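ok, trying the design again with the full structure, not the truncated one.
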């Protein structure tokens, strides 16, 4: 009998679908949160039969379970761990573990893509066009590659995953993979996804008014309390407030934090690692430890949320060489303009030049928003400023 322990997100459930199509009735699949995995694996190993095969995907085990799995294999049992997170690379010292972060082409891997390829290599599954399409959708979504490729189908697959129970999702996808030639959504799914996308848009627009700015270590961070739509929310907030290094999405009830970024130079897996978490460069998470609670919850609780830039301006527009105006909560006027002779961008605060200058408008705006927590003023405020001379 095969026993699969995998993550309870889209990538983890993708592994469950691979296993069920490969092994049929001969596999028991358990979907786990990061916090519950080790407890469940330990319970299995304490009563496992040597004839059983343990498979762990999309998650890594702790040191105690690492030792127990090694002993289980030495006693004649069979075990396999397939993961794609950098934090699990040390497990590659064992024959029973295979952790691969990048494909041969340099693209990031996902557990579903790795497990599918392993199943094909072992002759557990026959490869097919539609199965490969599904696996690639999961991989692109899990690694955030879908954004660069504008692969809306990958995002919609994850939306569908969160809209229905896991068991129903498994059944739907397994039926598609077994009966269709290419991966598409049916009419009912399209309707559900359309309704859900409208709901997500409303939710994100509300949360854009509830973002708090904080300095955590070397980073300027956006903090928001949210229970839903973390990937979409993290992406949209990162674009809306691009001066922030990353977005920390807090779930106080479940004592979890999700980290998201759109910046190539930021690695939120390293951030999560400071709080005993992990993940990918642009999407990671951790439990809300006492240290994390202090830095992300307490530090921002009594502060004011960031104000959004005026977005319907005709006069006060960004990147204008003649200058654009920013406002702050303490009513400072911050004017950014280009010095043509020096080919640099200048910042004036209440009419006084600051000592720094910048090569680009984007650098000047980033400095302004980080230091002064400022926002682009509306046209009316800009006209008042200009008329004052």
């Amino acid at each position: 009998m095969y026993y699969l322990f995998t993550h309870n997100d889209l990538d983890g459930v993708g592994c469950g679908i691979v296993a069920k199509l490969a092994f049929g009735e001969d596999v028991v699949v358990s979907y786990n949160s990061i916090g519950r995995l080790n407890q469940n694996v330990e319970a299995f190993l304490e009563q496992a039969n040597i004839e059983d095969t343990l498979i762990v995907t999309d998650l890594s085990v702790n040191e105690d379970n690492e030792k127990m799995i090694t002993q289980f294999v030495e006693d004649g049992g069979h075990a396999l761990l397939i993961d794609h997170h950098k934090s699990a690379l040390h497990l590659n010292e064992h024959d029973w573990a295979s952790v691969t972060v990048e494909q041969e082409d340099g693209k990031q891997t996902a557990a579903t893509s790795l497990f599918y390829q392993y199943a094909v290599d072992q002759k557990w599954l026959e490869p097919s066009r539609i199965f490969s399409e599904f696996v690639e959708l999961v991989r692109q979504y899990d690694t955030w590659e879908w954004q660069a490729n504008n692969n809306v189908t990958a995002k919609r697959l994850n939306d569908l995953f969160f809209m229905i129970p896991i068991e129903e999702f498994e059944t739907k996808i397994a039926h598609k993979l077994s009966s269709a030639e290419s991966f598409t959504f049916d009419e009912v799914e399209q309707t559900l996804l359309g309704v859900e996308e409208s709901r997500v848009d409303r939710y994100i627009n509300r949360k854009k008014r509830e973002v708090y700015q904080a300095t955590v270590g070397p980073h300027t961070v956006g903090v928001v309390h949210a229970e839903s739509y973390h990937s979409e929310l993290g992406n949209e907030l990162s674009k809306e407030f691009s001066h922030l290094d990353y977005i920390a999405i807090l779930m106080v009830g479940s004592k979890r934090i999700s980290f998201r970024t759109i910046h190539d130079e930021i690695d939120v897996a390293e951030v999560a690692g400071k709080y005993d978490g992990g993940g990918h460069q642009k999407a990671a998470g951790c439990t809300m430890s006492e240290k994390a609670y202090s830095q992300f919850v307490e530090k921002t609780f009594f502060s004011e949320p960031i104000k959004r830039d005026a977005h319907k301006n005709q006069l006060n527009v960004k990147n204008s060489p003649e200058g654009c105006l920013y406002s702050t909560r303490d009513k400072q006027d911050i004017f950014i303009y280009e010095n043509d002779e020096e080919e640099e961008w200048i910042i004036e605060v209440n009419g006084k030049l600051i000592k720094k200058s910048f090569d680009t408008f984007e650098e000047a705006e980033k400095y302004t928003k980080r230091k002064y927590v400022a926002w682009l003023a509306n046209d009316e405020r800009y006209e008042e400023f200009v008329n004052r001379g």
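Keeping the full-length input from now on. The chain is about 40% helix and 20% strand.
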